[in-house]
Write a structure and sequence with these properties.
binds pyridoxal-5'-phosphate; 9 helices; Ala_racemase_N; Pyridoxal phosphate homeostasis protein; TIM Barrel; pyridoxal phosphate; eight-stranded parallel sheet; alpha/beta; about 250 residues; pyridoxal phosphate binding
Amino acid sequence: MTGRPDPVGPDRRAALTAGLAVVRTRIADACAAAGRDPAGVTMIAVTKTYPAGDAVALTGLGVTDLGENRDQEAAPKAAEVAAAGVTARWHFIGQLQRNKARSVVRYADVVHSVDSVRLARALATAAESGRDRPLETLVQVSIDGDAARGGALPGAADADRGLGPVAEALAGLGSLRLAGLMAVAPLGWEPERAFARLAEVAEGFRAGHPAATALSAGMSGDLEVAIGYGATHVRVGSALLGMRSTLR
Ligand SMILES: *Cc1c(COP(=O)(O)O)cnc(C)c1O
């Protein structure tokens, strides 16, 4: 049995309302500066480390998309939000181990962090039995090419970790749908340089996968730059919900 989450109090509701107004304005301004329609940018509220009550309150304020980065936290939170009678679109955005695939496909609508052919296959197998419609997937791209830090490698021949092979795997597996690319600006890189590089990679990628138009890039600190370089999904945590006490 999953309990209903505790509702937020009036002060927390006011803080979330204010955070949301700020972020919506930032997105609108960035779209105006880039000559883009704000309808082309989906804001994902990243609720990691915050309780299900916050997620429910955000949906009450019009947020449709929620993001989490750890299965241990996301699975029970998604169940609690559902128990509150709320339907949200859940995005899994964190590093994912293959042994968690079976759990993640049950609540996630989109997985942003596929960076190996082996993970793609594990998700496909899990999605075949664990859900009744295809799982949307994005290839997480390594912008700095550092294989140790996660992300598929653009231009690499690596049969498991190359961007090409991972995208081909996702496009070819029936229980998955290839929706696009995701990236995080590497530590120590200017967002401008990181997202310019990502836009280049995305252009080449779309030549081979024209229907996979999603570009998940930009967080609280750099969403304007990401929108300027074509982000269709921004993943916003601290600017909406407050600073997290843990570094993740
Ligand atoms: C935590 C997280 C975010 C949100 O980060 P903020 O800086 O709090 O907006 C976005 N993307 C990923 C992959 C994350 O893990």
